[in-house]
Sequence to fold (308 residues):
Amino acid sequence: MKAAVIVFPGSNCDRDLADALREVAGAEPVMVWHKDATLPEGTDLVAIPGGFSFGDYLRCGAIAARSPVARAIVDFAKRGGPVLGICNGFQVLTETGLLPGALIRNAGLKFVCRDVPLRVETGESPFLAGYAPGAEVTIPVAHHDGNYIADPDTLARLEGEGRIAFRYLDNPNGSLADIAGILSENRRVLGMMPHPERAAFPHQGNEDGAPLFRALAEQLAGV
Amino acid sequence: MPHPFKARIEIMLKPGVLDPQGEAVRHALATLGFAGIDKVRQGKLVEIDMEAGNAEEAAARAREMCEKLLANTVIEDYRIEIAER
Fold:
């Protein structure tokens, strides 16, 4: 499995994400610079890491979502390719329109960096098959703009179609309906504010994020 | 013949969207003793110097820029003013 890890100026979780993809998902990570207009030949998965792409100028993820590689990511997703966006990667996915809604400044105004308890709301996704639906896990967040917002119709559709992937058990940022992560309509694009790559190895003291990567190994094996 | 125009683009969060930054500014103003403030909303102002055939064309281009990049219309509204420079 070849995983394209997208790197923007200001990305800072790209290497951690590549480590988790290599060691836990058994993938071959390839770092892809934002100026590349195409993904590497044979890309099976696109992973957009956390960080502060383009210094969060204009809006978080806004400039990254208009970079040359973003068009290639949108095409890949529209062909059914799996895309994972973590933290800033989630913001980039909403800015490209691949995921609905937006992420705005935390309601408490402060940058929040701590472990947060989450509930896995569905197992129906290549990213979530490693969790029992309803499972409670703890995964760290580290963000200033993680307050998810969507109009009532969008929220109703997300709820109705079971596209809420993770919900906060103790909402750290004011997110609508305690939303921590959502899926695309085809369930193959996941955006989430928590950082599973920071909870994927024994030396990190918490492996609650590892099932996400292990599931990828099984779900995308042989593709 | 292209003319020089300046587009002033005001971008504000939509009315229903919580603006925690505006709220923080409101608190700070109250701390300074400013009374009678009901609400503070904080937005962005973008100025773009450009060449265009006429004001309508300049406005149309500014609108396209807003839709494609400058505003996130999920959460933000924008207003454009065009002036000659």
Summary: The interface with chain A takes residues 13, 17-18, 20-21, 23-24, 68-70, 72, 74-75 of chain B (CB under 8 Å). The first strand of chain B starts at residue 3 and ends at 13. Residues 3-84 of chain B form a domain with the Mth169; Chain: A , fold (CATH 3.30.1280.10). The mean pLDDT of chain B is 95.
